[in-house]
Design goal:
With 450 residues, the protein is α+β, with helices and mostly antiparallel strands. It folds into 3 domains: 217 residues, no CATH class; 44 residues, no CATH class; 161 residues, Jelly Rolls, CATH 2.60.120.40. The protein is 25% helix and 26% strand. Strands 10, 11, 13, 16, 20, 22 and 23 form a 7-stranded antiparallel sheet that branches. Strand 17 and strand 18 form a beta hairpin. Helix 1 packs across helix 2 and helix 5 runs antiparallel to helix 7. The radius of gyration is 51 Å and the shape is rod-shaped.
């Protein structure tokens, strides 16, 4: 019966949550169980009556065929009972099996009958008997398992003392964990309680009582610590180095360590090409960069290119070094860098003596394809000499530590074109003070650390 199954599910849910079942719900379940049992018993009685009628009919036939014979039927289904006696069986006949085929414990008396039996007093059943135990057994008959929709002549009304204790227990305001714990204490869940075969209770590996206990522990833990993993300290997390409990000091940073596969405490944190350092409670970020300039005039060779020489290095450079004697730069850390430069070219030729200047990149001793650029330096006019600024930037990618690069240059007017430094000019009546113009300015900025 679908309706009965639904109400049983509600009853199980209320027990799981530690709530007192609604009396009306219990009454409905008992009523529906009685109807179900009556229907089963009716079907069973019908089968018995059909069998008895068959015996009577068989007995009459035998009697006509053999008038001298006794009244015993030949079918053997009723033993030594005559057909007439079979029809008039007692109301309290010993039941050995339930309607579903399961055996009835032998310890139970002959008077253990279904409540559908017309001789059972109305309103009496094993469920509301004083001998009914929490585990589904009957204390009157040695703990033998009984069903709620059955009855025996030893039925007794539940004592009022037990009812008062029940009222005291259920009327006191309690939290959900307390109600759950008290329900389990008063109603221990055992596999023998369920006679219909509940898979949760019959499987020892999937015990409902154990699951309720585990749920109770988690509810208590969450109530104490709040949602999440339940860890109260950072070092208790599984992906954090437990050593930070004893090694951490003020102002340190939590950084992921690939070697440990855990988060740990550090004084310095690398983010792309930026180094973040904590010192004295002050957080400072410093990227890899370099700044360089040349205050000397540079001339080109006649037929071959040469490295652009720069003679000044900023003292605050970080991760970018320069050998001023060779003009070769070293990038300490692998990554992607932006190299920007400007070159001040001067042409002392006059008339139609325009000349070209070529500049390109060399990395790790080899020229880099497609990095050359050409600028034309105009010829001078009268006392004025021709000037042009060659300025651009290149992206440079390195994959290993301490890779090198340099700028190479050449001009088709080696005797006329120089990379020239213009000295500073003092203020005059008609001109302001003007700073010096270096022959070369070059900067390197880290973009991304590999």
């Amino acid at each position: 019966m679908k309706k009965l199954d639904e109400k049983r599910s509600l009853l199980n849910l209320s027990k799981l949550l530690g709530q007192t079942p609604d009396p009306k719900l219990l009454e409905d379940i008992a009523y529906l169980e009685n109807l179900e049992e009556r229907e089963r018993q009716r079907q069973a009685d019908l089968k018995i009556r059909v069998g008895k009628q068959a015996l009577v009919f068989t007995g009459k036939l035998n009697k006509r065929a053999n008038p001298v014979s006794n009244l015993e039927p030949t079918g053997g289904m009723a033993g030594s009972i005559t057909a007439q006696e079979s029809v008039e069986t007692e109301d309290y006949k010993r039941l050995n099996h339930y309607p579903d085929g399961k055996p009835i414990p032998a310890a139970l008396p002959d008077l253990y009958q279904s409540v559908s039996n017309k001789m059972v007093p109305a309103g009496q059943n094993c469920h509301n008997c004083n001998y009914m135990q929490d585990n589904g057994g009957c204390s009157k008959w040695g703990g033998a398992q009984v069903r709620a929709n059955y009855w025996c002549a030893k039925w007794e009304k539940i004592k009022k003392k037990d009812l008062k204790e029940e009222v005291l227990i259920t009327s006191r305001p309690q939290s959900v964990p307390d109600q759950m714990a008290q329900y389990i204490t008063r109603n221990p869940i055992k596999e023998t309680v369920i006679s219909q075969g509940d898979p949760v209770l019959l499987d020892p590996t999937n015990n409902l009582q154990l699951k309720v206990k585990q749920l109770e522990k988690w509810v208590s833990k969450i109530a104490a610590t709040g949602p999440g993993s339940g860890s109260a300290w950072l070092w208790d997390l599984y992906d954090v180095d437990s050593g930070i409990k004893t090694t951490s000091v003020d102002t340190q940073i939590l950084s992921y360590d690939g070697a440990l596969n855990k988060w740990t405490n550090k004084n310095q944190l690398q983010v792309d090409n930026t180094s973040i350092t904590v010192s004295g409670g002050v957080i400072s970020a410093q990227a890899y960069y370099g700044s360089f300039y040349s205050t000397q005039n540079l001339t080109s060779l006649t037929t071959s290119a040469q490295t652009l020489r720069i003679n000044n290095v900023d003292q605050n450079n970080n991760g970018v070094n320069l050998n001023t004697s060779t003009g070769v730069f070293t990038l300490v850390y692998p990554g992607t860098y932006n190299v920007a430069f400007s070159i001040q070219c001067k042409n002392t030729d006059t008339g139609n003596g325009d000349h070209d200047v070529y500049v390109w990149l060399r990395q790790n001793g080899a020229d880099v394809a497609l990095t050359n650029s050409v600028v034309t330096v105009p010829a001078g006019h009268g006392s004025l000499q021709g000037y042009v600024i060659a300025a651009w930037n290149l992206f440079l990618r390195t994959t290993a530590a301490n890779e090198t690069f340099e700028l190479r240059w050449w001009t088709d007017g080696p005797t006329k074109v120089t990379l020239d430094t213009v000295p500073a000019q003092a203020a005059t009546a008609v001109t302001p003070a003007i700073p010096a113009s270096p022959a070369v300015i070059l900067t390197v900025n880290g973009i991304k650390l590999t």
